[in-house]
Amino acid sequence: MKRKMKFKKDSFNWKSLFVESKVSKPIYYVVSGSDLYGWSSKDSDIDLRGAHCEELTSIIGLSGYHEVREKSLNDLDFVSFDVKKEANLIMANNSNVLEHIAATPVYKSKAYPKLKELAEKSLSKLVAKPYYGMAIYNLQKYLRSFNESYREAPVKKYLYVLRAYMAGVYALERGRIEPNINKLNGMRMFRLPIVDELVKLKKAGNEKDFINGNPEAEEAINFLAKRFKEAEETSILPPTPNTYTELNEYLIKIRLGEKLERPQNT
After folding, report:
1. Are residues 117 and 130 part of one domain?
2. 50 in the same domain as 92
3. Tens-place pLDDT, residues 218-231
4. How far is CA 93 from CA 10, 22, 121, 171, in A?
5. What is the pTM of this model?
C-alpha cells in the first residue's frame, strides 16, 4: 500500500502549480474526493478542485479558450474550471461544484467569498437530480451489476450510494450543502451504524472484508432512497435558481478585473 502524500496548504508551492497548469487568476481550491467525503485512507490521492478566471485576451484572441485547466503531479490531481463553466454548473446545481464551493478552501482569493455567496443563493430543487444520479449510477453499475469484477470490494461503492442519498436529503430538507458523510451521519436525521462501519473499513484499507449484498447496507439504501423521494417532494427550495443576473454580473466584473461587492453576510 502506498503512503499518501500529506497536503500542507501553508507550505504548498501554489505559484509553481499555477504556472505549470497555466492558471493566471485563481479563485479558490479545496481538497476534494475521499478527503472531502470523509473516508480518506493512506492510499488516497490528493484531489485539488476549484475555479479560476481565464484571461480576457485568451478568450477573445486566436489562442483558444480553455474551460478546464488540469495537471497531475505524483499523488496530486489538479482540476480547475474557468469561472464561466463554474457559474453555469452552479446554475445547474451540479452537486460536485456546490460541494467544492461549500468546503473549507485550502486556497482562496478575494473573488471567492462572493462566488460562495452566489452558490449558496443558487441552491434549488435541481440539486436532487445530480445526487440521485450519483446514487443510482453506483448502485446499478457496481452493486447490482452481473459483472463480478464490479462487485468486488464494495465498501467504497456503498459509501458513494449512501453519501449521495444523505447529502441530497440534507440539501433538500435543510437548504444547505454538507459533503462529509461522518458529519451527516452524526445528525439525528440519520445515525446509521452501517455507515460508521463502512467508513472504518475504508479508512483501514480493509475493503475486501465486506461482502456485496450485506443486509444492513441494503436496508440503509432502501431507507435513504425512500427518505430522498419524500425530501424531494416536500422541499421548500425554489424549483430553479434565480441568481442568473447576479452570476452574470459577477462573471463580467471578474473577467474585466473590476472590484467586486462585498458579500452581504460579511
Report:
1. no
2. yes
3. 999 999 999 999 99
4. 31, 27, 11, 11
5. 0.92
